[in-house]
Every structure is written in structure tokens, then in C-alpha cells.
UniProtKB/TrEMBL annotation:
Transmembrane segments: 280-300
Main location per the UniProt record: endoplasmic reticulum
Record-linked PANTHER family: MALECTIN (PTHR13460:SF0), PTHR13460
Pfam families per UniProt: Malectin
Swiss-Prot/TrEMBL keywords: Carbohydrate metabolism, Endoplasmic reticulum, Glycoprotein, Membrane, Signal, Transmembrane, Transmembrane helix
UniProt protein name: Malectin domain-containing protein
Length: 351
């Protein structure tokens, strides 16, 4: 029943709407940061030389600690503090109701009363004697939600005018030092709307039920892990077997990822590689090779024979021409001889 209550509470909680965040600073951070909830935090451009930046992400003993009551621990790993009072100026756009969220976490002291300071809008104190360890302990976020009205260039908090709270259209947020160590801050968020429109209720619920929420989130993670594991239980996995002759068989099995126990073979599939490397496939390959070579030799033989026949046809045509020319020459010679003989005979007769 408790778990169901936690789920319902988280489901109906109102997270901070990033679209209504007008300005956000990750105090002490050298670069911009986008939180998991979608809020874009700007890097800290504070120019007061008397302030100091502390980056706890460089300290493994501190950065390895779980920061309670937040899903954005990155914000609390950098801070700006000073050995005196110091301030931030937050730009205001137009008249209306706003909520300023100031983010703190004690990363050094673990005893209450060691660090105490005030928060003021101009000269008006809006948080008195803030002691983070007394409120939430060490390594825990403490976000302070302060609703105010911006009207006619002036700021009102709880219907009280905050004197000198606005300078050149910017809200002056003062962190006032006391005799109990130094004031500090980790993050600032300006939200367009009253506290009821922010995630204030969700944050308070998180603080009151942190251990239960962690337990519930662990249960949800375990359920998600089980779902993923069940989805993989019936997946198909190829299992290959090889013998001494490098013959390969492939089967598909259903495998349980958790126990790695083979349930049952489903199908057997013979691939091209398996067919070629099998004895029958090898024999078939050799037969195909020799058969192909035989056909190739026959084709070469046919081409050679065709060329020889073509040559033989050309030779007989040449011989008759030569014989004809020789015969023509002999006939011409005979004619000449006959003519000569006839001339001689006629000469003899005349004599």
C-alpha cells in the first residue's frame, strides 16, 4: 500500500516547467549545464574578486557522496562563497509574480550552528539565520522558494516592500555574513509564477519520503531489468559445432540468458560454406571443376579445328592460280616457238 501511495504521489506531482524558467545560474561553474529536467543553467559570471569558487567535483571523497533530496546533484558540486557578504543581480523582465529558488547544500560542515547566514532582497531580509545542516544535514540539498511581486519597478515579498531591491531592472540578492562562518550558494533559478506553480510540493514530498522514494526507484529499476531479461529469454542464438575435419553445422537454439541452458533445437540450416566444406560438397566441387575443364578443352579444340580448315580452303585456291599462270606462260612460249618455226619454214621454201 505504501508503494502504491508513493507511485501516485510522484505521478501527480508537478515538476518544474523548464519553459517558465527565465534565468538560472550554476553558481561557481565555469560552463553552462542542462539538467535532466531540461533547465538550462548558465555558467557563473560573478566578477566580485572577493568571492571564492569551490569545485567539489575535483574532490573524489566529496563527489562520490550521494546528495540527498535532488535529481540534479551536479548543481551542488560547485559553489560560490565569500569571507564577507556578497550579492547576485537577477534580471527582471516585466511586472508579475515570480518565485526565486535558491539552492544550497552543506558539503563541508557536519554539525549545525557552524555556518549561519541571512538572505536579503536589497535591505529586506527574506530568510533569517539559514543553517543548512540544522535543516537537512550534510550532503543534502536545501532549496529555498521565495515568492515575490514585481510592480512598478519595486519588489514586494509577503506584501512588504523590499527597499533597494531593484537596481537597473535587476533584483539584488544579498547573502549576508554572520559571525558563524561564510555565506555561500550553489544555484539560483528565477521562475515565472507563484510557488503553487513550481515543484515546491514535489520537493517537500521528496524530502519527507526520500528513503521510500529510493526504495521505490530501486524496485522500478529491478522490474525494468526483469522485463528486459524476459524479452531476451526466447531470443535465437546461433551455436556452431566443428569437428576435426573443419566440417561445420549450424543450428538455432532458444537460450535462457539467465541460466544459459539450451532449451531445444528448432531448425537446422545448411549454408553455402557448410555445403562446400562437407565431403560431398568437396567431391562435387572437384567433379564440377574437371567437367568444366573438359568442356573448355573441347571448345578450344573446336576453335583450333575451325582455324585449320579455314587455312586449308585458302591453299587450294592459290595452287590452281599458280598452275594457270605457269600454263599460260608455257602456252605463250609454245606459240612463240611455233611462230618462229613457221617463219623458218616459209623462208626455206622461198629459197
Amino acid at each position: 500500500m505504501i508503494q502504491i501511495f508513493i507511485i501516485l504521489a510522484i505521478a501527480f506531482s508537478k515538476p518544474l516547467n523548464p519553459k517558465k524558467v527565465l534565468y538560472a545560474i550554476n553558481c561557481g561553474a565555469p560552463s553552462n549545464y542542462k539538467s535532466p529536467s531540461g533547465i538550462q543553467y548558465e555558467k557563473d559570471i560573478q566578477t566580485d574578486p572577493e568571492t571564492v569558487v569551490a569545485d567539489y567535483s575535483l574532490n573524489s571523497e566529496v563527489s562520490s557522496q550521494q546528495i540527498k533530496y535532488t535529481r540534479e546533484p551536479q548543481i551542488y558540486l560547485t559553489e560560490r562563497h565569500a569571507y564577507k557578504s556578497f550579492s547576485y543581480q537577477i534580471p527582471l523582465q516585466k511586472e508579475g509574480t515570480y518565485t526565486l529558488i535558491l539552492k544550497f547544500a552543506e558539503m563541508y560542515f557536519d554539525t549545525k550552528g557552524k555556518r549561519v547566514f541571512h538572505v536579503k532582497f536589497g535591505e529586506q531580509r527574506v530568510i533569517d539565520k539559514l543553517d543548512i545542516v540544522a535543516k537537512v544535514g550534510k550532503f543534502a540539498s536545501n532549496d529555498e522558494y521565495i515568492e515575490f511581486e514585481y510592480v512598478a519597478g519595486q519588489v514586494f515579498q509577503n506584501n512588504t516592500l523590499c527597499v533597494e531591491a531593484v537596481q537597473e531592472g535587476k533584483l539584488l540578492v544579498n547573502l549576508e555574513k554572520t559571525k558563524f562562518d561564510n555565506p555561500y550558494i550553489h544555484g539560483i533559478v528565477l521562475y515565472a509564477g507563484g510557488i503553487s506553480e513550481t515543484d515546491y510540493e514535489e520537493y517537500q514530498y521528496m524530502k519527507d519520503n526520500w528513503e521510500k522514494i529510493l526504495s521505490e526507484e530501486k524496485i522500478k529499476e529491478e522490474l525494468e531489468r526483469q522485463k528486459k531479461s524476459e524479452a531476451k529469454v526466447k531470443r535465437k542464438e546461433k551455436v556452431k559445432f566443428r569437428n576435426d575435419h573443419l566440417n561445420e553445422l549450424e543450428n538455432e537454439f532458444e537460450v535462457d540468458d539467465q541460466s544459459q541452458v539450451t532449451i531445444a533445437p528448432q531448425t537446422q540450416r545448411v549454408g553455402l560454406r557448410t555445403l562446400i566444406t562437407s565431403p560431398l560438397g568437396t567431391a562435387g566441387l572437384f567433379i564440377s571443376f574437371f567437367f568444366g575443364m573438359s568442356i573448355f578443352n573441347k571448345i578450344i579444340s573446336k576453335i583450333s579445328q575451325a582455324k585449320i580448315k579455314g587455312y586449308e580452303k585458302e591453299v587450294p585456291e592459290t595452287k590452281p592460280k599458280q598452275e594457270k599462270q605457269t600454263k599460260e606462260k608455257s602456252d605463250t612460249g609454245d606459240k612463240k616457238n611455233k611462230t618462229k618455226e613457221s617463219k623458218e619454214k616459209s623462208k626455206d621454201k622461198q629459197q
